[in-house]
Amino acid sequence: MPIVVRLDVMLALRKVKSKDLAEHVGITEANLSLLKQGKVKGVRFDTLASICDYLDCQPGDILSFEPEA
Fold this sequence. Notes:
By secondary structure, the protein is mostly helical.
């Protein structure tokens, strides 16, 4: 998949636990884990906005497009 999720990197940089982020965003830790692994087909904009708000980052800090060769 050409969309790469770097949520785990942002969590580490901000020293935030997945549990705390999931609670703030209002999703389960299991769903957050699936998102971190890139195993979801989509993410709602309000969920992405809430993640960015909590981590004080931009969507591009979490998601990137890397075309396949």
